[in-house]
């Protein structure tokens, strides 16, 4: 029997939040906020892990493309993060939701003392009814910039706060046994009970020019989360209403089962 979800981490990627120009997709962002606010009203505690700072910074700075050098991307992130949080705070406030910003680095999670403080801070924010919005502190950390698009960070956060589920919103319907963009006969994998080398082999390719993640980083994230006892879903973030379908238990995306649930 599927356990009820009382605490949910939702990760949204750059490709879901922005157009190919790097500018914000306001319609999609607005709908995401509306759906998350509605889910929150049902009694589910939500933590949002949001990418997009670099892409938004690139657009706001009027750059023609994402900087190739790390300092350039860090600078873009510094500009974009403030704009991103402004938009989230403005949109969530329309539904009487109080947001909070958590910018993390690998050291914050790996250091025992810092990790303990994070656990306490998240717990208190959720107790106060705030909706934490998490991103990697790209202006001082290069881990996400180089290695992934916050996928693994969302898994670490889910493990940190003892979430019941992690949902990674992306631009594909889930994990397929082939590349559905190249092979229309590729089949979606509905449930993964164990992440094997065969499953990892299905996750090829890298991210888009706007984001750095790809299916492989999402598989790594699922590995982290499921080992911590967190069910992990990879679903299409368009439309954002897919979150309702997931919570209703419908066959959507790919579910990676938490280790203790595997029988």
Account of the 3D structure:
The chain has 263 residues and is α/β, with parallel strands linked by helices. The protein has 11 helices and 8 strands. The protein has helices at 14-17, 26-41, 53-61, 70-93, 106-110, 112-127, 143-147, 151-161, 197-201, 215-227, 242-247, and strands spanning 7-12, 45-50, 99-104, 131-136, 165-170, 191-192, 231-236, 254-256. It has an 8-stranded mixed β-sheet, with helices on both faces. Helix 3 (53-61) packs across helix 4 and helix 8 (151-161) runs parallel beside helix 10 (215-227). The longest helix is centred in the N-terminal third of the chain and has 24 residues, at 70-93. Mean pLDDT is 89; it is low at 205-212.
Structure at a glance:
This protein is of the alpha/beta class. The protein has helices spanning 14-17, 26-41, 53-61, 70-93, 106-110, 112-127, 143-147, 151-161, 197-201, 215-227, 242-247, and strands at residues 7-12, 45-50, 99-104, 131-136, 165-170, 191-192, 231-236, 254-256. Helix 3 crosses helix 4 (70-93) and helix 8 runs parallel beside helix 10 (215-227).
